[in-house]
Amino acid sequence: MRKHLLFIALALLCALPGRAQLNLAGIVTNQKGQPLEGAIIIIKGTSKGTISQANGHFALQSTAALPFPITISYIGHHQENVMVRGNNFRRILVELSPESILTDEVVVAASRVPEDIKTTTTSVEKLGVRQFQQSTAISPYDALQNVKGVDFLTQSLTFKSVNMRGFDSNNNTRFLQLTDGMDNRSPGLGFGFGNVAGIPDLDVESIELVPGASSALYGPDAMQGMMLTTSKNPFTYQGLSVQLKGGVNNVGKANFGPKPYTDLAVRYAKQLGDRMALKVSFQRLDGTDFIADDYSDRSTSARTSFFITDASRGGIATGIGYAPITNANINFEYDGVNVYGDDINSGGAFKYPVNYANVLLNNKFVTRTGYTELDVIGNKGKVFSNRANVALHYKLSDDIEASLSWNYGNGNFIRTNNYREYFPDYQRHQIKAEIRGDNFFLRAYTTQQKADGWNIGQVATVINNTWKSLGQWAAEFGQSYVENKVSIGQARVESNRGRYLPGSTSFNTVRDTYANTYNTDFIPGSTAARGRRFRDNSQLWHYEGMYNFKNILQIADVIAGASLRHYALASGGTLFSRKTDGSEYTINEVGAYLQASKEFSLDEGVTFKPTVAIRYDKNQYLKGGLTPRVSAVLSLGVHNFRASWQTAFRNPTPEQLFLIPVAGAGGEVGGSSVAYNGTGLVSNPGYLQAETTPYQSNTTTTAPKPFVVDPNQFTTEKISTWEVGYKTLIKNKFYIDAFYFASRYTDLITPQTEYQLLTPGGGATALLTPANYRTLQVNVNSANEVFVRGAGIGLEYGLGEGFTVSGNYTHQIGLITLHDARGSIRNDLAGVPVVKRKISNPEVVQLGRTFFNTPENRYNITLSNPRLTERLGATITYRWTDRMWYEQGITAGDVWLPSWTSLDAQISYKVPSVKSIIKLGGTNILNKYYAQGYGLAQIGGLYYVSITFDELMH
User: What DSSP string runs through 778-789?
Assistant: First the structure.
C-alpha cells in the first residue's frame, strides 16, 4: 500500500510540458446589458475555469489550440456555449437570457463520463448551486428531502440517512455515498455518515443521485443507488466566502424549548501563480438535537395478543390487535417507545410464574420503570459538529490536474441500530491524492476513524439493575400490589422507593462507569459486570483508476476501471470478533469494470444510444460476482425514452460479518462463522421470535424448536432490476421526468430476532421466563424473494416572470414470496401459500419481520421565484409522506407509522454592494411534530436566518 501512495505522491510532483499560453478575456451580461457577477466560465471538456467579477469581466489562461469551446452558466439563466477563435479570444462577449427551468445540466454519476442530464440512459437527479440557493432546506444535504424518491430517516440533527427504492434503513448500507470520489461510510460500522462528516456546506458545488442498482460501475455497495457530492474547484471558485446561520428548534416543547441553533462556515480559495491553487474551508455547528420523546406505549410483535386473529382460519392475523396503554399507572406492561430499561423484550420485564400466590399476577408480565433518553444521556440534548477540508491543486498541463486533500469531521450524534446508540465525540480523517485528466483518473485515499459509543438502552437497564435486581423489584411490586391491595401505579411507586433519580450523584456515577468502561473490561470492583462502551477505530484504504479510450477508439465510447480496497478493523473486541491470537480481522476487496456506448443518428433529430457495462467484485470472505447492465436512450427531438436492465449484489458490512454482542446481553450478531461461533449459537442455538411468541401466549400450542443456521453459507445480497423512463422539455417551459421500475431481491441479509437461553439445555419451557434468555438480532440470508415495484414523476412548469411551480410524486410497494429454511414456499396460518403478497399485510407480518419500511406514496409541491425583484426571491414547499408499516430492531417495534406533512418556506434578499445574500426560512414552519421512523427523534420546526458573503477578495 505504501508503494501505491508513493506512486501517487510522486505523480503529484511531476509536471508535463505544455504549449504556448493563451490569455482569454471577456465580459458576461444579461439581456439588459447589465454585468453578471459570479457567472462560471469553463473550457469545455476540462476542469479549467473561472468566475466573472462584479463588472462582468473574466480572464482565463489556456494552452489549448484555437478554436475551442467554452461554457458559460449563471444561476437562473440559460447556459451558453461560445467558440473561442483567433478574432475574439481577447474580448469574448456573452449575453445570457433568463431561464426559470434549468435543464442543460451535465452529470457524471450516471455513466462516469460527462453527459447531458436529459439523455442519460439511467435515472439521475442533480442539485447544484441554483437549487441550494432556492431551497427551503437549511443545508445542501437537507435539500435532498425534496428530490423524488428520496426517503430521509432523521437519527439526529447532524445525522440523516438517505434511502431510495425500498428497505428504508436508519443505517443504509445498500446506498453508496461518495464525496469527491471517496466513500463516505464508516469503515467498520459500514453505513454512510452523510452530513456527520461531509464537506462544509460552502464548499459543495453539486450533489448527484442515481436511484436504483448502480453496481455495474460503482461496485457492490451501490445496490440501491449512489450519491456523488462534488466540492468546488479552487481554480474556478476563488476568494473568501463566509456564511452565518442562526435559528431555533424544539419550539413548543413543554419545559424544554425553544433552543438556539448556530452555524458558522468559512471558505477561502486562491490561485497561486499559473498552475497552483489552494482552498481551505471550515464549518462549526452548535445546537440542541431534535429529541426522541415518544413516550407512548410501544407497539411490538413481542406483545401478548399483538395480532387480531381468526380462529376459524387457523389463527391467521387480520389486523393489529394490541391497544397501547400509555398510562403506566394502569398498565402492567407499559414500555415507552423512548423510555429505556423498561423494555418488554430486552431485560426490562418480569413474568410471574403460573402458580404465583395471587391469581391476578399469574403468568403476567410487568415492566419496571425506565428512564428517558434525555435522562440517560445527561447532556440536555446538546449537539455539535465540526467539518473542515484543505486541498492543494496543481495543473500538470492544461488538461491534467493533480490534487492532495484532507477532509475532517468531528461531532456527537445518536444513531438507531437495534437500540439507540450515543456517540459523544466522533472523529474522522480522509486523505486523498488524485491525478485527473479529461480521459482518466488515478485516486488513492484513506479513511481513519475514531468512534466511541454506548448503548442507551443497555446503560439504562444496568442503572436499574445496579440499584435493584429485576427479580427483587418484581417481588416488591407483587407484594405491594397483592398484599397491600394498591393500584398498579402505587405499586410502582412503592417498589421504586430509593431508585436512582436522573441527575443524581448515584445515577451519574453508575451511568458514567458503564458508559466509559469498554464491554471487554470488568467494571471496577467487579468480576462479573462489564461496561457498555464500544469503539470502532477501523481504517479503510482504497485505490482506483479509470481510463476513457475516447482518443484511441473511434468505434465506440469505452471506459475501463479497477479498484482495490483494504479494511483494517479495530474495535479491540468491543464490536467485532478477533482472531485466536487476539489480532483484528482485515478485509480485502477487488473490483474491475468495463463500459461501452455508442450514439447512432437514425434520422434528423432522432438518435439512439445503447450502453453496456459489466463489473466483477470479490470480497475475500465471500464468493465473487458479476454485475452486468444494459441500457439505452432513444431521443426523438426533445423526447427522450430510456430503458435499462441490470443486476447488483451487496457484500455484508464488517458489522454484518463480525459483530458480536456484549457477553450476556442482547444485540446484533454477524453472519460469519466467526461471529456465530463467538456468540455460542452453534452449541446453544436460538429460538425464532415468530415461533416463540405464540407459545409464550399459549403453551398448548406447538413448542418452538431451536433455529439452526449454517454460517458457512452466508453470502451476498442480490438484486435484478429493470426500468423505463421518459424525460422532455416542452417549449422550454414544461419539464417532465417519469420512471417505472421493478426489482427482485434474493439472499437478503436480514437480522433475524432470536431468543438464546442464558443457560443451555433449558428447553422451550425456559422461554416462558424472560430472565432466562437474551434477545439477539442474527444476520442471516433470507430465503425469501422480495419484489419491489415503483413509479415516479417529476414536473416543473415555468409560469413566467420568474415563477416556477414544480412537484414530484413517488409510489412504491413491496411484495414477498416466503420460503422456509429448506426453500419450500411457506403458507400463512390459514394454509394459503404466501406468494407475491404485500409485505405489510397482517398475515405476512405475523410470520416474521422483513424490514421493508417504505412509505407507499409521497409527494412534494414547490412554488419558487428567485427573481421577485432584482434582489428578492422566495420559495415555499409542501411535503407529504404516506403512513408506512415499520419494523425496527429489538427495542423499537412493529407499527403503522402515521403519515406526516411539512410546510417549508424561505425568502432571500441580495445585497450586491457586499456580495451577500440574506435568507430567512424554516422547515416544518407549522411545527407539526413527526418522526420519520419508529423510535427516532420527533422533528418539529427549524427556523433560521442566514447571511452569506460570497467570493470576497476575489
Answer: EEEE---EEEEE
HSE value, Cβ hemisphere, 13 Å, CA-based, for 289: 30
- Beta strand 22-30 with 92-96 is parallel
Query: Which tens digits make up the pLDDT trace of 652-690?
Result: 888 888 888 877 777 889 888 888 888 888 889 999 887
CB 666 within 8 A of CB 348: no
710-713: long-range pairs with CB below 8 Å, 24+:
711/671, 711/672, 711/673, 711/675, 711/676, 711/677, 712/673, 713/781
Provide the angle, in degrees to the nearest 10, between the axes of the packed helices 470-482 and 456-467: 60
Least confident stretch, 101-110, 761-770, 913-922: 101-110
| pLDDT reported for residue 749 | 87
| Helix-strand-coil split of the chain, %, nearest 5 | 15, 45, 40
Rg of the Cα trace of the chain?
Answer: 29
Contact 611/632 with Cβ under 8 angstroms? yes
pLDDT (tens digit per residue) in 877-898: 999 999 999 998 777 889 999 9
Closest CA to 217 of 128, 108, 107: 108
Amino acid identity of residue 233, one-letter, is N
pLDDT band of residue 830 (cuts 50, 70, 90) is very high
Q: Which residue has the cell 469531521?
A: 409
Cβ contact 882:899 at 8 Å:
yes
Give the integer Cα–Cα distance in Å for 655 and 293: 28
DSSP 236: T
Please give the mean pLDDT across all residues of the chain.
89
Would the pLDDT of 15 be above 50?
A: no
Amino acid found at 923: T
Q: Which three cell numbers stand for residue 97?
A: 437570457
> Has residue 234 got a pLDDT over 50?
yes
Partners of residue 721 on adjacent β-strands: 646, 743
Residue type for position 199: I
Q: 1-99, what's its fold? A: Immunoglobulin-like (2.60.40)
Could you tell me the residue ranges of all domains in the chain? 1-99, 295-380+468-499, 673-713+749-781
- Report the alpha-carbon angle 842-847-848, nearest 5: 100
For range 513-527, the mean pLDDT: 92
